[in-house]
Amino acid sequence: MKKTSLILQAIFVLILCVTCQKEIIESQDYPRIRTLKVSRITADGATFNAEILSKGTNPIIEYGFLWDIEPNLDYHSSEKVSFYDPIGKGSFSYRSEPSLTKDQEYFVQSFAITDDFIVYGNTVQFVSSGSMSPEIKAFYPGIASYAYFGDSDKYNIAKNEW
Fold first, then answer.
1. Which CATH number does the domain housing residue 83 bear?
2. Is 161 a domain residue?
3. Is residue 1 in some structural domain?
4. What domain range includes position 109?
5. Cβ-proximal residues to 44 (8 Å cutoff; 6+ apart), any chain
6. What is the pTM of this model?
7. Burial class (CB within 10 angstroms; exposed 0-12, middle 13-18, buried 19+) of 110
8. Residue 118 to residue 102: CA distance in whole angstroms
9. Inside any domain, residue 16
10. pLDDT tens per residue across all 162 residues of the chain
11. How many domains does the chain divide into?
């Protein structure tokens, strides 16, 4: 009986020691960020989502998403969208419309930058349903001029022909 009682007490103490606890986020210099599941995957694009779990002691000066067809994303060479508006703890999203190929697997990763750190979230993957074609709304310069050198009587400017 004493042996059974000791075994039950030992099991009880073990259970108390191993129970799950909510993660305690201690004060740190750098932010913590998590990439969430990609949503609204349609023929017009996909929505990238992320959450800043803690902002750290240094202010976030840039944040956003990286994406590519290769899993090893890089701030300098992957597709990227950046935001510069002040942000604290919470979520943010971006709708990628003109740059996704249909039936292509993509990898997405969130990031946050302070004066001292670049912090990356986890990488998530999804298969694109396509995206909208790019739309040219303007070009520069808006007008053009030309110079003509040669025999002017052989060129008809009104008809644009020689």
1. 2.60.40.10
2. no
3. no
4. 24-127
5. 97, 130, 131, 132
6. 0.69
7. buried
8. 31
9. no
10. 666 666 656 666 666 556 555 555 557 899 999 999 999 999 999 999 999 999 999 999 999 999 999 999 999 999 999 999 999 889 999 999 888 999 999 999 999 999 999 999 999 999 999 887 666 777 667 665 555 565 555 555 555 554
11. 1
